[in-house]
Amino acid sequence: MTIADIKKTTQTKMDQSIEALKSNLGKVRTGRANPQLLDTIHVEYYGSMVPLSQVANVTLLDSRTISVQPWEKNMGAKIEKSIRESDLGLNPASMGDLIRVPMPPMSEERRKEMTKLARTEGENSKIAIRNLRRDANEGVKKLVKDKEASEDDQKRSEAEVQKLTDKHIADIDALVAAKEQEIMAI
After folding, report:
1. pLDDT value for 61
2. Are 161 and 148 in contact, with CB atoms under 8 Å apart?
3. Which of 23, 73, 82, 122 is buried most deeply by CB count within 10 Å?
4. Does residue 111 sit in the same domain as residue 167?
């Protein structure tokens, strides 16, 4: 493995960490409706638990209402029960074969809890990025120790990996700040 390989691998893994953060922040509830909120819900389907998205079409009706359209008529009650029993605090209402999930307005206290959750997700991503930086630097040190790279190469690569780390941490800060703003908006 060369220094270039180590940098490329580190870049890829850091980008994946950012994508994971985006996905996790998408699941944090804000005042607006978001179909991703229901991604964590599983429904019993012929004896096994499957994600809601595999048994129904989840879309937005308006900014405060998610609609769930089951693909099989007999699934409506099971989907409704799963949403109601989830820890999201949602109360679905069935209208024929369409299930409407209105988003209740969040209290100030709940908004602050959600903001803390978003910050925690951001902090976890920063830790992952820093661990990747450490792994990359250790990989380069091993190459120097095995005399496959010079100490100058090591210094250069550590500086480049640090720039990469700084860029990704700035991206994380921006994502978390945007999510906090979205949560606190009424």
Report:
1. 85
2. no
3. 122
4. yes
Q: Write out pLDDT tens, residues 13-34.
A: 999 999 998 888 877 766 677 7
- Smallest CA-to-CA distance from 67 within 49, 40, 90, 51 is with 90
Q: Are residues 97 and 111 in the same domain?
A: no
**Residue 111 has which token pair?**
């908004």
Choosing from 87, 102, 117, the residue where a domain stops is: 102
* Gap between the Cα atoms of 89 and 37, Å rounded: 11
Confidence of residue 97 (pLDDT cuts 50, 70, 90): confident
Domain span including residue 56: 35-102
**Residue from 61, 138, 124 nearest 93 by CA:** 61
Our count of domains for the chain comes to: 2
